[in-house]
Structure formats: structure tokens, C-alpha cells
Write a structure and sequence with these properties.
Blueprint lengths: L7 E8 L5 E8 L8 E6 L4 E8 L1
Antiparallel strand pairs: 1-2, 1-4, 3-4
Length: 55
């Protein structure tokens, strides 16, 4: 899935601590080959943690 006619693809971000999938975002797979890692708020951990891209 993604935006029609564009190279952006939808990716899912999961918390590193509890492994819960909390966020979705888009990324350009032509320019960014490696997996994304962002610091986001995890509602189940109740703190900011690293979220990595999952399959």
C-alpha cells in the first residue's frame, strides 16, 4: 500500500521494549534502503522508546 503513482510505501513501527506495533508511516524505499528507527511514545510502556520498522 502507499500513495498511488508514488514510490512511498507504508511501514509499521514497533516498540523495542514491548514489541507492540503502535505507529504507521510512509517512507521512500528508493532513497531509504535501511529500516527506519524513530523515538516515539509507547502507550503500553507509558514512555518514549525507540520504534523500529517491522515487516
Amino acid at each position: 500500500m502507499g500513495i498511488k503513482g508514488r514510490v512511498d510505501k507504508m511501514v509499521v513501527l514497533a516498540c523495542e521494549d514491548c514489541k507492540e506495533r503502535n505507529y504507521t508511516t510512509v517512507k521512500n524505499k528508493k532513497t531509504k534502503k535501511e529500516r527506519m528507527e524513530l523515538s516515539k511514545y509507547c502507550p503500553s510502556c507509558k514512555k518514549h522508546t525507540a520504534h523500529k520498522e517491522t515487516k
